[in-house]
Structure formats: C-alpha cells, structure tokens
Design brief:
- The protein has about 450 residues and is α/β, with parallel strands linked by helices.
- The chain has a single domain, classed as Alpha-Beta Complex (LDH C-terminal domain-like), CATH 3.90.1820.
- Helices cover about 50% and strands about 15% of the residues.
- The chain is built from 17 helices and twelve strands.
- It has a nine-stranded mixed beta sheet with strand order 3-2-1-4-5-6-10-11-12. A three-stranded antiparallel beta sheet has the order 7-8-9.
- Strand 2, helix 2 (about 40-60) and strand 3 form a beta-alpha-beta unit.
- It is globular and about 55 Å long.
- Bound molecules: 6-O-phosphono-alpha-D-glucopyranose (G6P) and manganese (II) ion.
- Manganese (II) ion binds near residues 149, 170, 172 and 200.
- InterPro entries: GlycHydrolase_4_CS, Glyco_hydro_4, Glyco_hydro_4_C, Lactate_DH/Glyco_Ohase_4_C, NAD(P)-bd_dom_sf.
- Its cofactor is NAD(+).
C-alpha cells in the first residue's frame, strides 16, 4: 500500500492533536510515510509537536514525524497539504468579533465584518503559502479548510485559476448531517444529503436514506419542531455552540422549506444575534478559556510524563476524521460524496458561473464532480446573490487596495446593511489590521 506524505500548515493549532490521534487511528486505511507540522509560531507548535513525537513513538513508529518552521523542510515531497492557518491567532479573532459588536453588528469569525477582516488577513498568507508549496510540491493536493473559507476560496479561484488541486472544504454541513443522524437514531453514513449555498450559508433540500431513497427531511422537520436540534457531539460542546444548534428550530419555523446550515442564524437574525452576543466575552474568549487551555495543558502534562498513557482527553475527532476521509477519497479515487466549495458553472443553475458555491460533489483523484441542484427559489437566490457580491467585493478590495470596494462589501453584507455603520466599522478594522492587510486607499 502506498504511503502518503502529508503536512499540516498551522501545526500549532488546537485542532492538531485531534488530527494526530485520528491519523494514528486510521493508519491501516490511510498509511503515512511522513507527517510534518508546519507553523510560523514556533512556541505553540513546539508544544503540539513534542506531544506528537511522543504519540507517534508509541502508536505510529513506522511513520516519520517531525515539526518545523522551515518552508523547504515542510513542503518538500508532499502528497497532501492540510491547511488550517489562523492568521493573527485568537487575539485577532477576538477583535474580529468585538469591533463590530461594539457598534451593534454581528461579531463572528466568518460572517459579517469579522469574516471580512479575517478574509483579508487569510488571503494574503494563503496565497503566499500556496506559492511556496507549489515550489516544492507542484502536484500535492491542497485541502484548505482555513477560514473564512468562502472569501479564501474566491481569492484562490482568482489567484490560481489553473491549479486544479486546491480543494476548499468545510466540515459544518457534515456536522449538521451527523446531528441529523443523532436525531434519527441512525449512522450518518446512511444519509445522502442534497445541499446548496455558499460556505456557511446554505440549506439541505433533501436528506435521503441512502438505501431506500426515502426523503427524511419531513421526519426531521417534525423531530426538530418537537425536540429542538443538538450537535452530534453535544456532550463535548461549549454553551455557544449548543445555542447555535438550538437556533435551527427557529430557522425552520420561519423558513420551513429546507434544513439550514447553523451559520444562517447570523444572516437571518442579525439584530437578534447581535443583541444576544456578549461584547465582552465572545467565542474567541470562550475558545481561549476552554479548548485552547485544555489542549495545551494536556500536551504539557504528556510531555512532562514522557508518555500518552493514562491521558485520554485528547482523542480522535470528527473534524479530523472527516478531512482524512476527504484525502482518502482523492488518494484511492473512491468518488465518495462530500459537500465541497466549487466554482459554480451551473451546479446552482440560477447563480453566476464564477461564484464559489457549496454543493454535493463526488470526489476522486481527478477532483470534485459537483452535482446539480437546478434553479433555487427566489428567496434563497436573493440572499445568496447578496452575500456573493459582498464576498467578491472583499476580494476586489484586496486586489485593488480599494477602500471603496471594502465599504461596498460591508454595506451590502446583510449583517451590516447600513453604509454609515459600515464605514465606522471598516475604519476601526483598518486600524486593528494594519499589520496584516494591504493598504486600502
Ligand atoms: C465549524 C466551522 C468551522 C469553524 C469551526 C470551529 O466546524 O465549520 O469553520 O472553524 O466550527 O469553530 P470554533 O468556534 O469552535 O473555533
Ligand atoms: Mn467552516
């Protein structure tokens, strides 16, 4: 069996230990020759990397494991690149969330002005990283799940139009499917969804039973109305995520046609959400106080003990398992179905060809084969065209260094929808991001 070389860009992430465990767990199905962690933050990465060394020595001694801050060492001879960078770290995420909230507007890492701010930061570093990767591994598959995925995907579409081995993907639609399986009492692999939208802004039109073809959406609608909606791994989730999943019930009461992606709450109830978010303690604070603390503390305990035995809080996780399955579908030409961000070209018939949309696709070694959903109803088309314009204007602003385009991007965003507020928030974001953004004139 061929062994694959893989690098994780953003190796110092809180998600990396879960990936390392999942790689160990899935080594028979997806054997690695070499696994490298790459990060520009040597301090964070060394904690995760030292943990990884101990873990791999115990569970995966046949694979080469190391971590580095050196580009050549990271990108040489790779088959797969997993990209999970967070430009500016949680400190900048905190500002993405808090600056808009100070003005009564949604503060979120991927939606609204926060997503815009993060988008401009990510775009610059993602483009640079991909040029670096291509210098050393011209044929590696690049699986990008760095946020904000919608804006990053638009940027990469423009910068690398001929590179067919960059795949933008998010696990949230899959998380929603898994949550449905919890409610239905079945395995998520028994479900066959149909989905359309943009990243973090989409809907399931059907959730079929893979075997019988029965559409389970009516049943799910009734179950959600009766019991509400919980993430599959509800027991491991922070409060804010439980509230987010809980909003699906409300979304389906108001818009019963389809099952929504959880992120739709920000676009459809912007005032309500902005009022219910705490401007002094946002998700970034919650992550720093929970996942970040837990992961780094546990890694340090393991490093001091010199063994992972007896420490069980870091475990394989659904997110990592999902991304490894994506890689396997490419590596083994399995043509499994995933919900992927692709250039539209008719997948959603009445949206523009050059929009980066999120739909079901079969995925094999020649890339994704998106499935068509036909025309979408006027309500959804209106919402998505509006947001697509906002995302495209964000990338126009990036390339043109245009303050005007940035202002237009924020003004047209449903979470803002007001030019005066957009200008105030934009000016504050420019100040906060001056070390990261291109100059907007
Ligand atoms: C979901 C989203 C991702 C997001 C992740 C973690 O999986 O699809 O885009 O990064 O949640 O969010 P958190 O708030 O826990 O850092
Ligand atoms: Mn996502």
């Amino acid at each position: 069996m061929k062994k694959y070389n893989l690098v994780i860009v953003g190796g110092g992430s809180t998600f990396t230990p879960g990936f390392l465990k999942s790689f160990c767990h899935m080594k028979e199905q997806f054997p690695l020759g070499k696994l490298v962690l790459f990060d520009i933050d040597a301090e964070r990465q060394s904690v995760i990397g030292e943990f990884g060394k101990i873990l791999f020595k115990e569970l995966y001694p046949e694979a080469v494991f190391h971590y580095t801050t050196d580009i050549a060492e990271a990108y040489q001879d790779m088959d797969f690149v997993f990209m999970q960078m967070r430009v500016g770290g949680y400190k900048m995420r905190e500002l993405d969330e808090k600056i808009p909230l100070q003005h009564g507007i949604i503060g979120q890492e991927t939606c609204g002005p926060g997503g815009f701010a993060y988008g401009l930061r990510s775009t610059k570093e993602m483009i640079k990283a991909i040029y670096d990767i291509r210098q050393y591994s011209p044929n590696a598959w690049i699986l990008n799940y760095s946020n904000p995925a919608a804006i990053v995907a638009e940027a990469l579409r423009r910068e690398f139009p001929n590179d067919k081995k960059i795949l933008n993907i998010c696990d949230q639609p899959e998380n929603v499917v898994r949550s449905c399986s919890r409610l239905l009492g079945c395995h998520f692999k028994e479900l066959d969804p149909v989905y359309f939208g943009l990243n973090h802004y989409g809907w399931f039109t059907h959730i079929y039973n893979k075997k019988t073809g029965e559409d389970l959406l009516p049943k799910l609608r009734a179950l959600i109305a009766e019991r509400g909606f919980l993430p599959q791994d509800a027991e491991q989730r922070d409060k804010s995520w439980l509230e987010t999943y809980g909003m699906v019930k409300q979304l389906m009461e108001d818009f019963p046609d389809y099952l929504p992606n959880t992120y739709n709450q920000y676009y459809l109830y912007p005032d309500y959400k902005a009022k219910h978010l705490d401007p002094n303690f946002t998700r970034a604070n919650e992550v720093m106080a929970s996942r970040e603390k837990r992961v780094f503390e546990e890694c340090k305990v393991i490093i001091n003990a010199g063994t992972t035995k007896g420490y069980i809080n870091i475990h394989e996780d659904a997110h990592a398992e999902f991304m490894i399955e994506v890689a396997m579908s490419i590596a083994y030409n399995k043509n499994d179905r995933f919900i992927i961000i692709v250039e539209n070209y008719g997948a959603i018939n009445n949206l523009p060809d050059d929009g980066m949309v999120e739909v079901v696709a079969e995925l094999g070694s020649n890339g994704p084969k998106p499935m068509r959903v036909g025309n979408i109803p006027t309500f959804y088309k209106g919402l998505l065209e509006n947001q697509l314009a906002s995302e495209k204007l964000a990338i126009d602003a990036y390339y043109e260094g245009s303050y005007q385009k940035a202002l237009e991007s924020l003004t047209i965003n449903r979470t803002v929808n007001d030019a005066k507020k957009a200008r105030i928030i934009l000016d504050a974001l420019i100040e906060a991001n001056k070390d990261y953004w291109p100059e907007l004139k």
